[in-house]
Amino acid sequence: MNAKHTRSQERILKLLKSLNRSLSAQDIYVELRNRNQTIGLATVYRSLEALKQEGSLQVRTLPNGESLYSSMQQDQHHLTCLRCGDSILIDECPVHQLERDLQRSHQFKIYYHTLEFFGLCTQCQLKTEVEI
User: What distance in Å separates the CA atoms of residue 58 and residue 73, rounded to the nearest whole number?
Assistant: First the structure.
């Protein structure tokens, strides 16, 4: 990980750590502007890409294509509804041993992993049954 960050990268990291939740690039831009920190949207995107490349933040892409960025350095696992977009965070992780094996067998430095299952939440299942 890079020890030297630009001022914009530092602002983004500080914001994500202080909020302790995932945000889209647009949300990061708005939040920084609301805090009177002048930054352009293109700079936000460039900074996020650089931080992602060095492993300083995590990125999760939603089914609608939107990316959410987080400073949390932990594995994240979700059940995501394809209809309403709700995501449920799950704690179980069946791939920790696989991650260690892959790092060892491929000499590949893994920063984090995500595991996501897509389907229908209970409410959307009920709506589907009613529509039939």
Answer: 7
124 is in an annotated binding site: yes
Which of 38-42, 87-91, 113-117 ranks highest by mean pLDDT?
38-42
Three-state secondary structure call for residue 126: helix
b/e code 21-44 from CB counts within 10 Å (16+ = b) = ebbebebbbebbeeeeeebeeebb
| Co-location of 61 and 79 in the same domain | no
Global pTM exceeds 0.85: no
Judgement on whether residues 17 and 36 belong to the same structural domain of the protein:
yes
Residue 113 labelled as part of a binding site = yes
- Total domain count, the chain: 2
**Strand 67-70 versus strand 76-81 pairing type:** unpaired
Yes or no: say if 85 and 31 are a contact pair by the CB < 8 Å rule: no
Contact 51, 57 (CB under 8 A): yes
